[in-house]
Specification:
about 70 residues; alpha+beta; about 35% helix; globular
Length: about 70
Amino acid sequence: PRAHTALLRFIHHHYRLGHRCVMVITGRSGQLRSEVPRWLNEAELRPYLIAFTPAQARHGGDGALYLLLK
């Protein structure tokens, strides 16, 4: 899917730039909210991620994730 490809590119881009924390907006409902965490656990992304967690309420809460990059 296009969203999966876009997520891969986003993570690779920010990883190459040396960014340590980025935010991904999934929305509070819908397919992305359930798919993105599954994609983040796939083997091809594990080398780039330390962890991911729901964003604080002021940054979208359940509709966004913080990604901690290696």
